[in-house]
Amino acid sequence: MLTRRLFSVTVKVLNLPKMNNTSKRPFTVFVEGNIGSGKTTFLEHFCQFEDITLLTEPVEAWRNLKGWNLLDLMYKDPAKWAMTFQSYVSLTMLDMHCKVTPTPIKLMERSLYSARYCFVEQIMRNGTLHPAQFAVLDEWFRFIHNHIPIEADLIVYLKASPAIVHERIKQRARSEEQCVPLSYLESLHKLHEDWLIHKTLGECPAPVLVLDADLDLSEITEEYKRSEHQILRQAVDVVMRSPNKLSPKKPVTGGAIKIVPNIRL
Is 109 a catalytic site residue? Predict the structure, then answer.
């Protein structure tokens, strides 16, 4: 009973739409990867397409909740702040999952799945979270998973070596991240691999497209272009087959999509 009341309050606070099996939703892509793997750069690559909505990770919300920088607090004192931070991450990510978009395709930077199976899992395994705190976060994830549609149609995994992302983090010089050790990135990498590649951790809710994110900036654009056809072709196929999804602005028939700026699906 308490859980149902909490859920009702959450729905009212977030103004979530009532969702069921007949609710329309866009073709949804989760862009997953380690810290510094290039997720934001990947999303920016898709700004050229009109019929794709891009939802970036709400880092600024984490850095300023009524004046409090939860990201900074978590990195400086994870034993004290990890539970608070991950609770707020869940709230903000749920808002992204439920956000109504005007386009037939939605690309999201990370998801509640990676929050649970990678980041919460990591701080549980290293002893930062008390087992009771982990149980609360896990119950919230299970409840959301069972009652709110947060699924995806495709996952793009930006696979990057821990040593490379460690150097990128140093170069981008985000103040909160300067204390991130290589060992933390290595453990996150293993969890991403277990979840998305080996399928030995949690639920992988969609097919996974793996891209080489170790490439430098001069080469990685070509790797991202390689993903365009697969994402857009699958999106059109799913949208055209299902009456429960948003229809593209123009019907698409025949062969592969020609990838050009400002394409309309």
Answer: yes
Query: How far is CA 189 from each of CA 34, 42, 196, 229, rounded to the nearest angstrom?
Result: 6, 18, 10, 27
**Single-letter amino acid, residue 201:** L
- Do 179 and 25 form a contact (C-beta atoms < 8 A)? no
Domains of the chain: 25-241 (3.40.50.300)
CB 157 within 8 A of CB 205: no
- The CA dihedral of 208, 211, 166, 215, to the nearest 10 degrees, is 180
The per-residue pLDDT for range 42-77, each reduced to its tens digit, is 888 888 888 899 999 999 999 999 999 999 999 999
Point out the catalytic residue in the list 32, 57, 109, 121.
109
Confidence (pTM): 0.81
- Which positions ≥6 away from 37 have C-beta within 8 Å? 158, 159, 160, 165, 213
Buried b / exposed e across 160-196, counting CB within 10 Å, b at 16+?
A: bebebbbeebeeeeeebeeebeeebbbbbbebbebbb
pLDDT, one tens digit per residue, over 196-233 is: 999 999 999 999 999 999 988 667 777 777 777 777 77
For the record, the structure tokens of 28 come out as 């949804």
